[in-house]
Amino acid sequence: MSDWTAADLPSFAGRTVIVTGANSGLGLVTARELARVGATTILAVRNVDKGNTAAADMAGDVEVRQLDLQDLASIRKFAEGVDSVDVLVNNAGIMAVPYALTVDGFESQIGTNHLGHFALTNLLLPKVTDRVVTVSSFMHLMGRISIKDLNWKSRPYLAWPAYGQSKLANLLFTSELQRRLSAAGSPVKAVAAHPGYSATNLQSHSAGAFGRVFEVGNRVLATDADFGARQTLYAISEDVPGDSFIGPRYAMRGSTGQSPRSPLARNRGKAAALWTLSEKLTETEFPL
């Protein structure tokens, strides 16, 4: 374990990083710190006006580009506009929201948190030189992947299990991506991170009574966004093995380092099956 903080970030001069969902919360801090140390930082955001507001407070080379992870056409357009990138940070996400569908008919949490980033990663992968970092959650522990009903069409929708499924999908995606990168002889790494429990606007959109619970939890238990983003920044910058899962030592707090994952998150068969299904749903595939 490490007492590492964002102050320990090395120079990123001459390097390009894309951060999804970088207009608020963990993504904003991640982008701000990378820009501070010299990275050309692309804020990939759904709301460009909010992105521009966030970018105005960042020092360095910062660019705002529109990306809607709930729309495959938007993802393709964004990817076509990228020439090269050193690090892709799959940070954007929604948590425990009421049932809704994406433009392409996916349940919104699996669509945003997993399928959108899955498509983005595959479309950008030939242009990535260093690593793909995907932000998961220790709430993956409550996740179960339903290959037969990933989009909650034949079972009653439950907001928290749907969130857990999407965060478990992030880890299975990272593991299978690393397996494929290694098999292809690629030097690119796939790494995951989780923030612990950081107070951001993510919780404010949670469904039902849990939204009110988080109002209290954010004041009493949560760390700040700088602490949460520290885990992602470590995963971005440090020499960690592929398929690492970086987070706080004590799940929600503590020094930064390797974090445990559930047995379901280590299921290679499920990871492969999820990858195959995700390729079919997004009409994208591993390009290397």
CATH class: Alpha Beta
Shape: globular
Average pLDDT for all residues = 92
* Structural class by helix and strand composition: alpha/beta
Q: Name the CATH architecture.
A: 3-Layer(aba) Sandwich
Strand order in the sheet with the most strands: 3-2-1-4-5-6-7-8
* Fraction of residues in H or I helices: 25-40%
What summary fits the major beta sheet?
8 strands, mixed
Q: Would you list the SSEs in sequence order as H and E? A: EHEHEHEHEHEHHEEH
Report the sheet-strand fraction: 5-15%
Low-pLDDT stretches are 216-221
What is shown here, in short?
The protein has helices at residues 25-36, 48-56, 72-80, 108-124, 159-183, 209-220, 225-237, 268-282, and strands spanning 16-20, 40-45, 62-66, 85-90, 128-135, 189-193, 245-248, 256-258. The protein is an alpha/beta fold and 288 residues long.
Structural overview:
With 288 residues, the protein is α/β, with parallel strands linked by helices. The chain has a single domain (6-196, 224-282), classed as NAD(P)-binding Rossmann-like Domain (Rossmann fold, 3-Layer(aba) Sandwich), CATH 3.40.50. The chain is built from eight helices and eight strands, in the order E-H-E-H-E-H-E-H-E-H-E-H-H-E-E-H. The protein has helices spanning 25-36, 48-56, 72-80, 108-124, 159-183, 209-220, 225-237, 268-282; strands at 16-20, 40-45, 62-66, 85-90, 128-135, 189-193, 245-248, 256-258. Strands 3-2-1-4-5-6-7-8 form an eight-stranded mixed β-sheet, with helices on both faces. Strand 4 (85-90), helix 4 (108-124) and strand 5 form a beta-alpha-beta unit. Helix 4 (108-124) runs parallel beside helix 5 (159-183), helix 4 (108-124) crosses helix 8 (268-282) and helix 5 (159-183) packs across helix 8 (268-282). The longest helix is centred in the middle third of the chain and has 25 residues, at 159-183. The two termini are 34 Å apart. The model is unreliable at 216-221 (pLDDT under 50).
